[in-house]
Amino acid sequence: MEGKLFITGHNGLVGRAMLRHYATQPQWQVITRTKAELDLRDPHATDAFFAAERPDYVILAAAKVGGIKASYTQPVDFLLDNLQIQNAVLSAAHRFDVKKLLFLGSTCIYPKNAEMPIREDSLLTGPMETTNEPYGVAKIAGIK
Fold it and tell me: Which of 57, 72, 110, 135 does the annotation list as catalytic?
């Protein structure tokens, strides 16, 4: 594969690793934007970006994260911000004919007491860890 690759969340843990990898591959024209440059929660700004840049591929690594305490004390912020990011990016990717989109989740989407190693079919089979539930619920919505 080759083409324009938009890596969201390129300053985060996974996004940074993806950027390091793809930036060394000559077949990829890697595109990034910081939160200050593009608020992915804003569907109009996200659409304008996709219209201007026309990425062929997207890695959706952007998310509101912040640890257990922040997630537990700001559940609505975590839920809404992550849903808004996902909705804006997924919608723009669909509207602007992105060929493939890689959506990243985490173990937070699985039940608290999921058997290890976690299997994909464990999703939605039990209660989630309450401290990460707002983040996890948003991620599950994006996956489904």
Answer: 135
